Amino acid sequence: MKNPASARFLLPLILSAALTTPALAQHGAHSLPAVQIQGQDYQYSGPASVPAGWTTLEFRNTGQEPHHLQLVRLPDGMTQASFLAGLQANEGATLASVEMVGGVGMLLPGQSQQVTVNLSEPGTYLELCLIPDANGVPHLALGMVKTLQVAPAGAVQAQPPQADFQVKLVDYGFELPRGVTVTEGPQVWEIANDGPEGHEMTVFRLAPGKTMEDVNAYLKNPEGAMPLIPLGGAQAMAKGRVSYLHLDLAPGEYVMVCMVPSPGHQGAPHAVLGMLRPFTVAAKTAQR
Questions:
Q1: How far apart are CA 212 and CA 216, in angstroms?
Q2: Would 94 be classed as within a structural domain?
Q3: Residue 165 belongs to what domain range?
Q4: In the chain, N or C terminus with fewer CB closer than 10 Å?
Q5: Counted domains in the chain
Q6: For the whole model, what pTM was predicted?
Q7: Domain annotation covers residue 1
Q8: What span is annotated as the signal peptide, if there is one (predicted)?
Q9: Is residue 255 in a domain?
Q10: In a domain, 283, yes or no
């Protein structure tokens, strides 16, 4: 299988051993129980079925390579087998035929994160890892794909968590509330795709000694050690969808990035079109 939408994966292509794994995030409590999913090299483990509605996914990377959790809903009549066969025949058309529902962005081995998504319709969903290995082969082609059946919702409908603030994903940028200051500690961000294209919001921390100039240079020529440390984020979702990202941030310099390819710009990654935004996480003592 060719690498689907290869421009999508510029950032994850090269991970340096010098980038040490950050400590596991401890997430704040909320009302929805977490559905636990583990990513290994190269498979997912977790429940086979969940009820429709708002669902918190807790993804833990227990493998030796970076992984993410991309959730997609298959159109009626498509199965995991026919999806994979479609990728072989026509990658672009097959990927365009599924609905991006969200998920957890790229995590290094040992990291975990939670994101709350709306499994709004019963049906067949797939858990996918699209990150390529050292040879450029996407992990899903190595077996990292799993079916998740979403059953009809129960009598009691879960509600999404309370968000600290909203981030809007637009073509092509990230819109935060005017004057917002991101402070350290546990928090929940509402991530809303105001499209019209599909978008994601992956979160990275600047590696020690690196600047945004290094990030921009890496995007133009992704060789050598990445100047960013992956910290997860909200995976790609279709226009109109909302995810709730659970974070526990330490003070420092961070970057939010969207690397989804643009169909209107010959597949150029959204980050190249301006969907790349640095932000600072302030210590609470600095807010006095």
A1: 6
A2: yes
A3: 6-14+22-153+160-287
A4: C
A5: 1
A6: 0.87
A7: no
A8: 1-25
A9: yes
A10: yes
d(CA 116, CA 162): 11
CB 116 within 8 A of CB 32: yes
Q: Which amino acid, 236? A: A
The one-letter code for the residue type at 50 is V
CATH classification at residue 123: 2.60.40.420
Q: Which residues of 232-254 are buried (b: 16+ CB within 10 A; e: fewer)?
A: bbbbbbbeebbbbbbbbbeeeeb
Secondary structure of the chain in the HEC alphabet? CCCCCHHHHCHHHCCCCCCCCCCCCCCCCCCCCEEEEEEECCEEECCCEEECEEEEEEEEECCCCCEEEEEEECCCCCCHHHHHHHHHHCHHHHHHHCEEEEEEEEECCCCEEEEEEEECCCEEEEEECCCECCCCCEHHHHCCEEEEEEECCCCCCCCCCCCCEEEEEECCEEECCCCCCEECEEEEEEEEECCCCCEEEEEEEECCCCCHHHHHHHHHCCCCCCCEEEEEEEEEECCCCEEEEEEEECCEEEEEECCCEEHHHCCEEHHHHCCEEEEEEECHHHHC
